[in-house]
C-alpha cells in the first residue's frame, strides 16, 4: 500500500513492507516504536503505516545498535541526526555530545581489548602448531 508522493502526499507502507525493505523483524520494529525510536500512523483498523523515511530511520537505529548504544541513548541521539544520511542536525546538546564521547571511548576500549585477545590467540596458535613466529607475524601484516 503506497500513496503517490508526486502531489505532496507522503508514501506509506505497512509494517511487513518496512520489515522486508530493512531486513528488520516486525517484532523489532514494534519494539522501536515502544521505545520512541520509530513512529507510525494508525489506520482506522489499527494497522501501522510508516512513511518512506522510516526506511532511513531504521537504518540509523540499526547502525547505532551495532555501535553498542542502548535504546535510551539512541532515543536521545536520533533527533540530532538526519535520517537520510546520518549526518548531524543542529539540535545536539552539550550533554549529548559528552555522552557520545563517553560511548566512543567505551568502543575504543573494546577494540583495544579485542586486538589484545587476538594477539593472545596468535601466541597460542604459534605455541600449539610449532610454526615459526615470523609466519604468524606475516599473517598479521596482511590484515
Give your account of this protein's structure:
The structure is a single chain. The protein has helices spanning 15-22, 26-34, 53-66, 71-77, 94-129, 133-141; strands at residues 12-14, 41-42, 48-51. Residues 1-9 have low confidence and may be disordered. It has a 3-stranded antiparallel sheet with strand order 1-3-2. The N and C termini lie far apart (47 Å). The longest helix is centred in the last third of the chain and has 36 residues, at 94-129. Strand 2 (41-42) and strand 3 form a beta hairpin. It contains 6 helices and 3 strands.
Keywords:
about 5% strand, single chain, mainly alpha, three-stranded antiparallel beta sheet, about 60% helix, about 140 residues, disordered N terminus, elongated, 3 strands
Amino acid at each position: 500500500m503506497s500513496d503517490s508522493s508526486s502531489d505532496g502526499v507522503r508514501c506509506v507502507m505497512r509494517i511487513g513492507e518496512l520489515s522486508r525493505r530493512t531486513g528488520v523483524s516486525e517484532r523489532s520494529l514494534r519494539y522501536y516504536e515502544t521505545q520512541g525510536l520509530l513512529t507510525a500512523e494508525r489506520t482506522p483498523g489499527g494497522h501501522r503505516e510508516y512513511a518512506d523515511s522510516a526506511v532511513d530511520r531504521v537504518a540509523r537505529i540499526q547502525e547505532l545498535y551495532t555501535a553498542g548504544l542502548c535504546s535510551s541513548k539512541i532515543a536521545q541521539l536520533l533527533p540530532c541526526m538526519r535520517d537520510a544520511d546520518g549526518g548531524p542536525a543542529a539540535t545536539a546538546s552539550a550533554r549529548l555530545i559528552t555522552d557520545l564521547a563517553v560511548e566512543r571511548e567505551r568502543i575504543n576500549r573494546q577494540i583495544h581489548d579485542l586486538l589484545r585477545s587476538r594477539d593472545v590467540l596468535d601466541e597460542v596458535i604459534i605455541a600449539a602448531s610449532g610454526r615459526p613466529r615470523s609466519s604468524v607475524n606475516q599473517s598479521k601484516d596482511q590484515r
